[in-house]
Amino acid sequence: xxxxxxxxxxxxxxxxxxxxxxxxxxxxxxxxxxxxxxxxxxxxxxxxxxxxxxxxxxxxxxxxxxxxxxxxxxxxxxxxxxxxxxxxxxxxxxx
Length: 95
Prior knowledge:
By secondary structure, the protein is an alpha+beta fold. It has one domain (2-93): YaeB-like fold (2-Layer Sandwich). Helix content is 39%, strand content 35%. Strands 1-5-4-3-2 form a 5-stranded mixed beta sheet. The radius of gyration is 12 Å and the shape is globular.
């Protein structure tokens, strides 16, 4: 399975301190081992899955999509405005 990271996802992970980047990588590994680990979304975000995990003491959400033989990570971040920002981002990239 091919893994792709959208620029927004890469940027978020890159800004984090090294030990927190590892937490993101571990979450990516969780998704790779079971692509259905995230909650399937409905409505505007149908087709997306959101995997929730903690980083330190904060809940982090990670949006991804499985398409044919590809796994695409779109966004990661805290819960606050997560879905609103994801919808806005999808509009920007024409997704």
